[in-house]
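Supplementary Data S3. Sequence and C-alpha cells for construct A.
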Amino acid sequence: ELIDVIQANSAKMISQIRNREIYCMQENFKKSALNVNRIRDKFGISIVVPTEFKYVKEADNFIWLKKDITSGNTNIAIYQVPLNFVMPKSDVVNNVVRIRDSVAALYIHGAAEGTVMITEKSYSPYLFKTKIDGKRAFEIRGTWELDRNMAGPFVNYTVIDSVNNRALIIEGFCHIPAKHKRDLMIELEAIIKSTKFNSK
C-alpha cells in the first residue's frame, strides 16, 4: 500500500522537494548577492544572483553573467524582444529558438573566429508552461553547442510582459564536460525564479 501511495504521488513529491531546494538556494543567495542595479535599470526587474557571477557583456537589450568553476562555467543571459517576436503560442518553441540563436550570434562567441552558440538541432527542446512572479511564462529546456567541441544544457524562461509589450527572456546554461550538471542547473533555475518585476 505504501508503494502504491508513493507511486501515485511521485510527481507531486518530486515537485515539492525540488521547490524546497530552490527556495533554500534563494535564501542562501541573499546572504551574499551581486549588485544588480544594472539589470534593474535596463530591464525593470530585480533578481538575486550570487556574488560569484561576474558581468561579462552588456548591450542595449542584453546582459550576460558568468561564474567560473573548476573545469567549466555557468551562465545567465537576460534579454528582451517585442512580444510579437514570441507569439503566436502555437509556435513558441521555434520562435524562442530562433531568437536565442540570433542573440547568441550577436553576443556569445567561441574562441575560434566565426563560432557562435546555437541550439543543438539533434534534439527538440521541451516546452512547459509556468509563471515567473505571477506572469505567464514558457520554460524551454534543451541543449546548446558551440564549435562542435563545446555543448551543454540550457533552461530558457520567456516571460510574457504584456503591460510593456515585450517578452523578457532569462536563460541559464552551463559548460562542464564529463561531470554531472543537475545541481548547476538547479542553481541557475533558482536564480531565474527569484526574478521580481518592478511595479512601474
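Construct B, processed identically:
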Amino acid sequence: FLPALLTLGGGLFLEDVVSGYWSAPVGALTAIGFAALLNGQYLSVDARWPVYTTARLVVSICAYVAAFALYSVVYEFDVGLLGAAFSVGLASLVLSLEILREATPVGSTLQTRTAVVYPCAIGLFLAQLTWALHFLPLEGFLAAAFLLLAFYAATGVAQNYLLRQLDLATAGEFALVAAVGLSIVVIAHAVG
C-alpha cells in the first residue's frame, strides 16, 4: 500500500505546492525518493540482511512523508468533515500497518493481533483527532503537521511496546517530541 499512497498523496501535494520551473527538479527528486522506497521495501523483507535496519528506516521515513502529504491534501482540498475523518483514519491505518510490520515477525503469536488491532486503533485515533480538529482554528499544513505528530507518537509508542522496548525514558522522548512539535504548531499558528 505504501508506494500507492505515496504516489497518490505526493502527486496531489506537489500539484498544490510546486509550480513553474521547480516542477522538473522536484519531479526528479520525487522519482529518486520513490526508487529508494521500492528498494527499501525489497531489502526490508528479510531481517537477516545486513542492510535491513537502513531499509526499514527508509521505508518508515517514506511512510511519514506519505502521511503528511495525505493529511495536507485532505485539508488543502477542503474535504468535508466526514470524508476527512474517514480518509485520515484509513490512511493512518494502512500506513501504520507498514510501520508496525517490523514489530511483528512472521509466525509470531502477536502477528495476528498486531496486524489488526494496533493499526485499527491508530486509524480510529487519527480519525477522531481529525474530527476534533474541525472545531479548532488549525487549517492546512499546520493541521497536517499536528496530525503527523499524533501519528508519529502513536506508531512510535505502539512499535516500542510491541518490541518490548517501551520504558519511561522512551515514553518521555515521544512526549518531548510531541510537546516541541505542538509548540511549533501553536507558535506558527499565532504568528501566521
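The radius of gyration is 17 Å. The chain has a mean pLDDT of 87.
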